[in-house]
């Protein structure tokens, strides 16, 4: 049988491919609806109590076979409310790539900020030295 034993800590249910799942920046993962219910009571993570957790949508790729789709089938009219995006594999890797890119960019910007901060300090120091000189020369004038 299947080995998907990853459960949501809030409802203790196993995740299924169709579930809306959120991953927190603290590393904990929950059903979107469970978390929403929880967040009515408390803004902290149900497991680690982290209170500045940022949640991202998570697309898990289970090995369950996708629902068979006949291409010859026409629009089924009644059920087109966005449930057909089960092929989340490409979407997931796209998001993963974007995530890594942003992580990299963040690092670059952090370094840049550090560099600029140093630069500002140097310039401010130089500025105050010049100002002192100015004041001195205007005094002796
Ligand atoms: Zn749940
Ligand atoms: Zn947590």
Automatic annotation (TrEMBL):
<protein>
    <submittedName>
        <fullName>GL15128</fullName>
    </submittedName>
</protein>
<feature type="domain" description="RING-type">
    <location>
        <begin position="8"/>
        <end position="49"/>
    </location>
</feature>
<dbReference type="GO" id="GO:0090734">
    <property type="term" value="C:site of DNA damage"/>
</dbReference>
<dbReference type="GO" id="GO:0061630">
    <property type="term" value="F:ubiquitin protein ligase activity"/>
</dbReference>
<keyword id="KW-0863">Zinc-finger</keyword>
<feature type="compositionally biased region" description="Low complexity">
    <location>
        <begin position="69"/>
        <end position="78"/>
    </location>
</feature>
<dbReference type="InterPro" id="IPR013083">
    <property type="entry name" value="Znf_RING/FYVE/PHD"/>
</dbReference>
<dbReference type="Pfam" id="PF13639">
    <property type="entry name" value="zf-RING_2"/>
</dbReference>
<dbReference type="GO" id="GO:0006963">
    <property type="term" value="P:positive regulation of antibacterial peptide biosynthetic process"/>
</dbReference>
<feature type="region of interest" description="Disordered">
    <location>
        <begin position="63"/>
        <end position="88"/>
    </location>
</feature>
<keyword id="KW-0479">Metal-binding</keyword>
<dbReference type="GO" id="GO:0008270">
    <property type="term" value="F:zinc ion binding"/>
</dbReference>
<dbReference type="GO" id="GO:0005634">
    <property type="term" value="C:nucleus"/>
</dbReference>
<keyword id="KW-0862">Zinc</keyword>
<dbReference type="GO" id="GO:0016567">
    <property type="term" value="P:protein ubiquitination"/>
</dbReference>
<dbReference type="InterPro" id="IPR052639">
    <property type="entry name" value="TRAIP_ubiq-protein_ligase"/>
</dbReference>
<dbReference type="GO" id="GO:0031297">
    <property type="term" value="P:replication fork processing"/>
</dbReference>
<dbReference type="InterPro" id="IPR001841">
    <property type="entry name" value="Znf_RING"/>
</dbReference>
């Amino acid at each position: 049988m299947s080995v998907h034993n990853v459960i949501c800590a809030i409802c203790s249910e196993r995740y299924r491919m169709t579930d809306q799942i959120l991953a927190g920046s603290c590393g904990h993962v929950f059903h979107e609806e469970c978390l929403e219910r929880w967040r009515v009571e408390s803004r902290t993570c149900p497991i680690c109590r982290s209170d500045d957790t940022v949640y991202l949508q998570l697309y898990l790729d289970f090995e369950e076979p996708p629902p068979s789709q006949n291409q010859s089938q026409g629009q089924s009219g009644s059920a087109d409310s966005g449930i057909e995006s089960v092929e989340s594999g490409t979407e997931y890797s796209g998001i993963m790539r974007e995530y890594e890119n942003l992580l990299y960019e963040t690092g670059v910007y952090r370094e840049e900020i550090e560099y600029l901060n140093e630069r500002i300090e140097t310039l401010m120091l130089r500025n105050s030295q010049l100002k002192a000189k100015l004041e001195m020369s205007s005094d002796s004038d």
